[in-house]
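Folded chain entry
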Amino acid sequence: MRKDEFIKALKRALFRLKKTERDRYLAYYSELIDDKIESGMNEAEAIGEFASISNIKESIMSDALERGMIKPKHNPLTIILLILGSPLWLAFVLALFSLIIALYVVVWAVIISICAIELSFIAVCIGSVVFFIVNMASNSAFALLILGSGLICAAISVLIFVPIIKLIKHMVIYSFELCKSIWQKINIKGRELI
């Protein structure tokens, strides 16, 4: 484990401490690691000499509990304000959530519409070739006109095919990243409330 990974893991473990107290412990362990590195150890050896993150957390939390440096789980005033203000903030949160979902659906609807246009260009191309073959003998000028318009549609469909595929790929990746980011934020906020 590297120093920055160790410090991040320790920071996550000490989330219940007040910020100043947590920063003090993080600086202390960072300085300890730096001192061990200066004495000739590499990062992995220096961190390997410490106890596990959970043991360090238990030691720090028991010390901080004695000194009253742990954030309270629930402040009664905050709970009362949340309950009394729930008609306002809950409506606002639901409206914001609905707006985000609506925007997301609209973006996907536009992408699906573009895909439908692409499929219609392909269908026109196939239909014009069939029309040309069937009507070539009876009305050759009109059949050539339809074949030409079908080939134009084929060219347009070829031109927009790659951008559509890239757009869909980016939207799927962005959707997964957005959902993952939202889930991580909800998970972190939920741990802070406990």
